């Protein structure tokens, strides 16, 4: 039985995922690990390529696009390790990172969810390995664009966690799913990811649910990966719609109805302000206008947004 099971969900990113898996193997000599790849109905030859290049990996052909939460849960059910690591397919693991992450987790049982330090391809820090939890204040700052005007401000952009470069061990509210380590027993106790989400927001909900269960979340800076953000989703307005659907779902599932209603209105206001500015400045690339124009598609959150944004029939409640 392996100690560490690494779960990667792939969707038409054959080359990037191949590089990701190869980097895991090359960067982790001595780590007792297994690779579990869930393919979400790719049409780029992913399944055949992975099985040929990584014969020891468990490659699961889902046959359709399950989204992230369902894909991860499917992979976790097939995993045998005592630790589960969720890893994005658009990442490159740096030498020694997984060994450092696992060693920290073994020697610090006071924590329950572990993340790392993500870098952009140019070597700069990508802060999206972790976030602060949303609040009415943070959403008001989004609505007024203060979080954009004072980016990385701990007061006006609190969800960014300030200018901290993720280079110290630090407890945080949310660990993102691009690099997330958890004990298998804790994963099962929490019930895995919430499958009502399709894409974006499910990792935030998982972290907040873990917090309610008493699991502390921590960043381990020695665990470094390079992250090409958004490798399996469209950039611009389409991705923005998915992100907003995830945010709305998170508020409605974790806040009281009255508080969530206010929070959603602040999100809509923030999108509207940004879309208006794009119109006034006559920008040729105007993703926020797309998000604003399609607000009816995401304003109810998931599961309805899965149908409106992706043109899919909703899964049955069973």
UniProtKB/TrEMBL annotation:
GO molecular function: transferase activity
Pfam family, one: Glyco_transf_7C
Provenance organism: Agromyces aureus
UniProt domain Galactosyltransferase C-terminal: residue ranges: 174-222
SUPFAM superfamilies given in the database record: Nucleotide-diphospho-sugar transferases (SSF53448)
Domain spans labelled Glycosyltransferase 2-like: 5-127
This protein's name: Glycosyl transferase
Keyword NADP part of the UniProt annotation: no
UniProt cross-references to InterPro entries, sorted A to Z: Galactosyl_T_C, Glyco_trans_2-like, Nucleotide-diphossugar_trans
Keyword vocabulary terms for this entry: Transferase
């Amino acid at each position: 039985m392996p100690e560490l099971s690494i779960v990667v969900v792939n969707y038409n990113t054959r080359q990037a995922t191949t590089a990701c898996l190869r980097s895991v193997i090359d960067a982790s000599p001595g780590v007792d690990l297994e690779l579990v790849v869930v393919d979400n109905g790719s049409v780029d030859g992913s399944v055949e390529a992975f099985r040929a290049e990584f014969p020891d990996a468990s490659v699961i052909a889902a046959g359709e696009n399950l989204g992230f939460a369902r894909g991860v849960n499917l992979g976790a059910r097939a995993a045998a390790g005592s630790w589960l690591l969720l890893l994005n397919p658009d990442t490159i693991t740096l030498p020694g990172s997984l060994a450092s992450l696992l060693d920290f987790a073994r020697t610090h049982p006071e924590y329950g969810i572990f993340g790392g330090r993500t870098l952009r391809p140019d070597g700069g820090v990508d802060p999206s390995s972790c976030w602060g939890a949303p609040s009415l204040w943070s959403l008001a700052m989004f609505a007024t664009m203060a979080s954009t005007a004072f980016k990385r401000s701990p007061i006006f952009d609190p969800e960014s966690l300030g200018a901290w470069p993720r280079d110290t061990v630090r407890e945080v509210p949310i660990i993102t799913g691009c690099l997330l380590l958890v004990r298998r027993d804790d994963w099962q106790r929490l019930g895995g990811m919430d499958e009502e989400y399709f894409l974006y927001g499910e990792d935030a909900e998982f972290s907040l649910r873990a917090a309610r269960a008493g699991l502390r979340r921590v960043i381990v800076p020695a665990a470094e990966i390079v992250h090409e953000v958004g490798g399996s989703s469209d950039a611009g307005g389409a991705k923005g719609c998915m992100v907003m659907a995830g945010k709305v779902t998170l508020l409605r599932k974790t806040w009281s109805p009255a508080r969530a209603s206010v929070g959603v209105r602040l999100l809509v206001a923030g999108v509207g302000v940004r879309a208006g500015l794009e119109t006034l400045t006559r920008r040729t690339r105007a993703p926020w206008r797309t998000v604003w124009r399609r607000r009816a598609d995401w304003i109810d959150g998931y599961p309805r947004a899965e149908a409106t944004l992706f043109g899919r029939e909703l899964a049955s409640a069973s």
